[in-house]
Amino acid sequence: MSAINQITIGIAGHIDHGKTSLVHSLTGKNTDNLKEEIKRGMTINIGFAHLNEQICLIDVPGHENFIKNMIAGVCNIDFALLVIAADDGIMPQTLEHFEILTLLGIKSGAIVINKIDLVDKEWLDLVKNDVKEHFKNSFIDIDNIFLTSTLKNTGVDDLKNYLFNINVVEKFDRGIFRMFVDRVFSKTGFGNVVTGTVSSGNIKIGDKIKISPQNKLVKIRGLQSHDNKVDVVKAGDRGAINLHSLDKINILRGNHLSTIDTVSISENAIVKIKIISKYIKKIKDNQRVRFLLGTQEVMARIYILKKIDNIDEMIFLVKFEKKIISCFKDRFIVRSYSPVNTIGGGSIIDVNVYGKWKMNKEYGSLLFDERNNDSNLIKLIIQNNIDKVYNLEEISQKLGLSKSITRDYVNKNNISVYGNHENPWFITKLQKKNIYKKLLDFLEQFHVKNKYSKGVSKEQINNIFNYNIVLLNDLLKEFIKEDDINCDKELYFLKKFDIKLSNQDKNIYEKVFKHLNNEKFNTSSIKELADLNNCNESKLLSLIKIDDSIITINNNYIITKLNYKKLLDIINLYFKN
Questions:
Q1: Residues 6+ apart with CB under 8 A from 572
Q2: Radius of gyration for the chain, computed over Cα atoms and rounded to the nearest angstrom
Q3: How far is Cα 131 from Cα 106, in angstroms, rounded to an integer?
Q4: 312: closest CA among 369, 362, 268, 272?
Q5: Rounded to 5 degrees, what are φ and ψ at 294?
Q6: What pLDDT, in 10s, does the model give residues 181-217?
C-alpha cells in the first residue's frame, strides 16, 4: 500500500463506457445518486464510493457537456483509471479525458477495457493493440490493461487486487489546510454541510477556518470521511464538513476552505500553460477562455508573455473576469470559449501581478527560464516588485504555503534574512543591490543640494523607502560596512563627501561664532545674525550647523557649545548648593 494514508482514484472515460457500473462492481455502490442521472443513465455530477478505508473512487462524467464536472473530480486524484468500452474502442471523450489528466499532472494510471462480453477475441486484441500504441510513453501503465465485464463480473477481482496494491506519488503538501467545495447541502439540526477532497493539510473538530471568497470565518462542528465520523480530515481524504457560523453565509460549489490568513483572492495570475499541439497556432492575445481550477470555473482573458517556437509550454498573464482563489503550483485547465474545447492546462506561478506590460514581459521571460524549478521561481516572485520587501507572513500568504515550507524554499536560494525570527523580511541580492543604489543616489542628490549639511537622518532616509524601522536599521548597519557610506552622530553621508567652505563662508562662520561666544547666554536670533553678516537666513542656518561647535534649539535659540557647557556647570552648581 502507498505510504500516504488516503488514495483517491479517478475513473474517467467516454460516455456509456461503463464507468459507473464498474464502480458498482468494485464497491457495491451506485454513484449515480441524482434523480436526473438515474433517469438519463449518465453521470452528470461527481460520484464517490469507497473501495476500502484508504481508497476512494471518484466517478466523473463522460459526456462532453459535463467536462467541467470531470475536471473538478480529477483535480485532486492520485491515480487514474481510463475506462474504454471494448465494442467502441478509443472515443473522443476518451482522448479529451486523457489529455485533461495529463495536463493536470497526474503521474500514474491504468487502462480498463470494459464490456468484453460484447466482442470476440479478435476484435478485443485489436482494441488492446490500439490502446497500447496510443497511450505508450504516457503516465498510463500499458503493461497492466484490465479486461472486465461488469455484466458477468469478469476481471473485477483482478482489478480490485491491483488497486489495493498501487503505489502513488506523495501529494505536494503546503502545510496549510485547503479544500475546494464540490457539493453543498443542509441537514436538519446540523446546518450547512460541504464536501470535497482535502488537497493539503488537515483540520479537526473545533478548528476555525476561512471560507473564500466570502472571507468569513466558520467553525468545524463535525467531520466525516469514508462514511464514518472522524475527528480529523487530512490531505487526500474525501471530507464532509459540518460548518457552524453566527453569520448567514451562502456557500456554493467552487468556494474554498482554508487555514485562516493563508491564501489570497486573485484578480490575475501569471501561469505556465502546456498547449495541446493542434491549438498552438490558434492561441491569440486577449483571447477569452474558460479557466477551471479546483471546482471553480471563471471566464478570463489570456495574454502571451513568453513563447518559443517548437515548445508547447508558454507563460501567460491571465486576467480573471471574476476573482478566484489560486495559489502557487495550483493546477488548472483552460478551455476555449466557443466552441468549447480543452486547449491546454498548467499551473499557477504568481498572483495579483501589476505593472507595465514591458515589465511583465521581462518577468514572464525570467519565469519561463525557471518554469520547472520551484525554488528559483519563488526567488523571482520575491524580487519581482523590486522595491517591495516581503516579510514571512506576506510571502507565505501570496504563495499559499505554510511559513515553515516557505522558509525551506528561501533557505535554498541564499536569500538574505533580516529582523526577528518569527516574521523576518526576505531580500534577494538583486533587491539589496537596488536598495543600496537608491540610497547612494539619494545621498548624492542631498549633498549637491545641501553642501553645508553633513548628512541625513534615518527618518529622512526612510521617507524614500518606507520600511519597518527594524529592517531599515539592519540594512543601514550592513551598508555602512561598504566603502561608500559613513555614519557619524546618527547622520548618514557619502564617505567621499566633505563640506568645503569658501573664504567668504569661513569669515561669516568665524564672525558668528565669535559674536555668539561673546554674547554668552543672551544670544541673537537668526535674523539678527543674518543682518549682521549681510547674508540670508537659510544660508546662515546651514553654515552654523556644519559641525557641533554651535548648538541650535528649534532654530531659534542659538548658543556655542562652549557657552552651553558653562551654562550646565552653573546649573549643576546651583542644584548642588
A1: none
A2: 35
A3: 18
A4: 272
A5: 60, -130
A6: 988 888 777 778 998 888 899 999 999 999 999 999 9
Give the whole-angstrom CA distance, residue 307 versus residue 332. Answer: 19
Nearest to residue 351, comparing CAs of 379, 325, 390?
Answer: 325
User: Is residue 227 packed enough to be buried (19+ CB in 10 Å), middle (13-18) or exposed (0-12)?
Assistant: exposed
Residue 335 backbone dihedrals phi, psi, to 5 degrees: -125, 150
| Cβ partners under 8 Å of residue 554, min gap 6 | none
C-alpha cell at 316: 501567460
- Report how far apart the first and last C-alpha atoms of the chain are (Å, whole number): 91
Angle at which helices 67-74 and 92-103 cross, to 10°: 40
- What are the grid coordinates assigned to 394, written together? 506576506
Q: Which residues pair with 185 in a beta bridge?
A: 193
Q: Residue ranges of the chain with pLDDT lower than 50?
A: 1-4, 32-45, 62-63, 65-66, 73
Phi/psi for 114 (5° steps) reads -100, 170
In whole angstroms, what is the distance from residue 73 CA to residue 71 CA?
5
Exposed, middle or buried: residue 9 (CB in 10 Å: 0-12, 13-18, 19+)? buried
Grid cell of 244 as nine digits? 457552524
